[in-house]
Write a structure and sequence with these properties.
- With 310 residues, this protein is of the alpha/beta class.
- The longest helix has 20 residues, at 289-308.
- A six-stranded mixed beta sheet has the order 5-3-6-8-16-15. Strands 9, 10, 11, 12, 13 and 14 form a six-stranded mixed beta sheet that branches. Strands 1-2 form a two-stranded antiparallel ribbon.
- It is built from six helices and 16 strands.
- It has helices at residues 80-95, 117-120, 150-160, 162-171, 181-186, 289-308, and strands at residues 60-61, 67-68, 100-105, 110-111, 125-130, 141-144, 146-147, 176-179, 189-192, 200-203, 210-227, 241-254, 262-264, 269-270, 272-274, 277-280.
- Helix content is 22%, strand content 26%.
- β1 (60-61) and β2 (67-68) form a beta hairpin.
Length: 310
């Protein structure tokens, strides 16, 4: 019988090797708990640190961006063994290069993490949240997510060097996907004449021929759409029915020759794509299984083609 993490539960549940409580330790229990009798000390140093922001634990971030895990009991629950070992097996597969590597930029105003829940739950994918260029590596896909403060986060990316790193990655013909604020950052200019954030204007990354102008009006709506014929690596995402929601200030205007990403149910064009760069305002874009499966297929095909060319 398998447990919820896909392991044979009978192989470890109730066994001494899967639970150890070191009550003689000077720091026992090292995390706050109402059940010290079932506090598991087996994983004294949490092995899930290797996963960074996608560890799955109940951590918070300090002002300096350091993980504070004092309220997290994930590795110290009585039955934590199955969770830890299953996650470590994913890490081993990733090191062997078998998992598709998705890097999501984690800027200070990172929002709508639920946009990526289905990707995190996909066994063939390893989702990482990246806060500095040294963490980026060479992923199969970079996603620029939604933001609570697009201009501030664009400036932060510029300051820490992630803008340059993403642009170098894109210049190699590799795919970048922006959602909402991330879509705005991929464009040429972001103009805040209405002082929605800080006022003024800044240049975007210049990867999409799109200019964004903030306004007092905020668009909040659930909508359905269908994707158009995708260019480049993500071609398998063409002509798919999708649904999601929009929640943003302002509008993004494409250049006259630019191609939209999809058609909304009211018939209007939405998003933009150019080569292997894609942007949309639709949160929940990857929630549909067909869209997720198409993304897996597209990235797997890209990896196979790259390996065959070596």
């Amino acid at each position: 019988m398998e447990d919820r993490y896909g392991m044979d539960a009978e192989s470890w549940q109730g066994k001494h090797f899967s639970f150890f409580s070191n009550t003689d330790c000077e720091f026992f229990p090292c995390h706050k708990t109402d059940d010290p009798d079932n506090f598991n000390c087996l994983f004294c140093f949490c092995p899930l640190y290797a996963f960074g922001d996608s560890c799955g634990g109940n951590y918070t971030l300090t002002d300096a961006g350091v993980h504070d895990c004092s309220s997290c009991m994930l590795p110290h629950r009585q039955n934590s063994y199955g969770t830890i070992m299953q996650r470590l097996s994913f890490l081993n597969e990733h090191k062997e290069g078998s998992l598709l590597d998705i890097a999501i930029i984690r800027f200070p105003g990172f929002a709508n993490k639920c946009d990526f829940s289905i990707l995190e739950a996909t066994s063939s994918m390893m989702v990482r949240f990246v806060r500095e260029p040294s963490m980026l590596g060479d992923p199969d896909l970079i996603i620029i997510p939604g933001s609570t403060s697009t201009i501030s986060d664009m400036l932060w990316m510029r300051m820490v060097g992630l803008e340059d790193a993403v642009c170098v990655y894109a210049s190699q013909g590799k795919p970048v996907f922006g959602i909402c604020g991330g879509y705005q950052m991929l464009g040429t200019n972001i103009i805040d004449a209405s002082d929605i954030e800080h006022g003024g204007s800044i240049k975007g990354m210049g990867l999409l021929p799109v200019e964004t102008i903030f306004s007092d009006d905020e668009r909040r709506t659930h909508t359905k759409a269908h994707t158009l014929t995708f260019e480049g690596i993500l071609a398998p995402l063409s002509n798919l029915a999708i649904s999601g929601y929009e929640m943003h200030h302002g509008q993004s205007r494409r250049a006259k020759t630019a191609k939209p990403l999809c058609i909304l149910e009211d018939g209007s064009e939405e998003g933009c794509m150019q080569g292997n760069i894609y942007g949309t305002y639709l949160h929940g874009f990857f929630d549909q299984p067909a869209c997720r499966d198409a993304l897996v297929s597209a990235l797997a095909n890209m990896r196979c083609n790259n390996e065959s060319e070596r």
